TrEMBL record:
E.C. code: 5.3.1.24
Record-linked PANTHER family: N-(5'-PHOSPHORIBOSYL)ANTHRANILATE ISOMERASE
GO molecular function: phosphoribosylanthranilate isomerase activity
InterPro entries xref list: Aldolase_TIM, PRAI_dom, RibuloseP-bd_barrel, TrpF_fam
Location of the N-(5'phosphoribosyl) anthranilate isomerase (PRAI) domain: 6-211
Biological process per Gene Ontology, one example term: L-tryptophan biosynthetic process
Family, similarity comment: Belongs to the TrpF family.
Enzyme category, top tier: isomerase
Entry protein name: N-(5'-phosphoribosyl)anthranilate isomerase
Keywords: Amino-acid biosynthesis, Aromatic amino acid biosynthesis, Isomerase, Tryptophan biosynthesis
Length: 225
């Protein structure tokens, strides 16, 4: 199975084109956040989501915390997938599934320690996938993604093995460490932002090097069976 690749912090249709040309399976569109890189206006998110051709998925990254507010955010921007970046009440995710059953739901889990594993049964019945990131939602200014930091991949590997849903891995991935990350964690997909950018802009060379590294490790893992 090949590793799916999501390119996050897409800022324009031009960046979306670059990401898709490089082989991206999904685009991440960051709405207003308490901190971190890449937020763009909802009108821009809606424009990119409407332009993006199938089968490429569009992920709205929302920091809203209630089902009603998330549903309104999705209706305003029309992505194919909503990525919930905070550890919200699982009952709200359950209600979101009722409000918007046609929209794919991805729950971010910020891996600050082994306690992340306890969140699997709370969210798994209501989402289509998880995304493991390196934020600190409990910080004075919450960090909900885009930190450029790696986290403890041994915990992520345990999460992947325990999860009944596909799992994306995020947090400080680049061409130098992605092979180790894929071998150790074996995620369904990876999520990239800060480490494939230069001065805030998507860097085609960094992206190409990372894509090549991912395909190399995919081929090696396939050959190993």
């Amino acid at each position: 199975m090949r590793t799916r690749i999501k390119i996050c912090c897409i800022a324009s249709i031009d960046e979306a084109q670059l990401a898709i040309a490089a082989g991206a399976d999904a685009l991440g569109l960051v709405a207003a956040m308490p901190s971190g890189p890449g937020p763009i206006p909802d009108a821009c998110i809606a424009q990119i989501a409407a332009w993006t051709p199938p089968p490429v998925a569009t992920f709205l990254l929302t920091s809203e915390t209630t089902a009603q507010a998330i549903a309104e955010h999705v209706r305003a921007t029309q992505p194919s997938t909503v990525q919930i970046v905070g550890h919200i009440d699982p009952r709200e995710v359950e209600e979101l599934a009722r409000l918007l059953p046609h929209v794919r739901r991805v729950q971010v889990i910020h891996v600050e320690g082994p306690e992340a594993l306890a969140l699997i049964p709370a969210y798994a019945p209501h989402v289509h996938a998880f995304l493991l990131d390196s934020g600190r939602p409990g910080a004075p200014v919450p960090e909900l993604g885009g930190t450029g930091r790696t986290h403890d991949w041994s915990v992520s590997a345990r999460f992947v093995r325990a999860s009944p849903r596909p799992v994306f891995l995020a947090g400080g991935l680049d061409a130098n460490n992605v092979m180790e990350a894929l071998r150790q964690v074996r995620p369904y997909g990876i999520d990239l932002c800060s480490r494939v950018r230069t001065d805030g802009k998507l860097d085609v060379m960094k992206l190409a090097l990372l894509m090549a590294a991912v395909r190399d490790v995919d081929a090696a893992l396939y050959a190993e069976g």
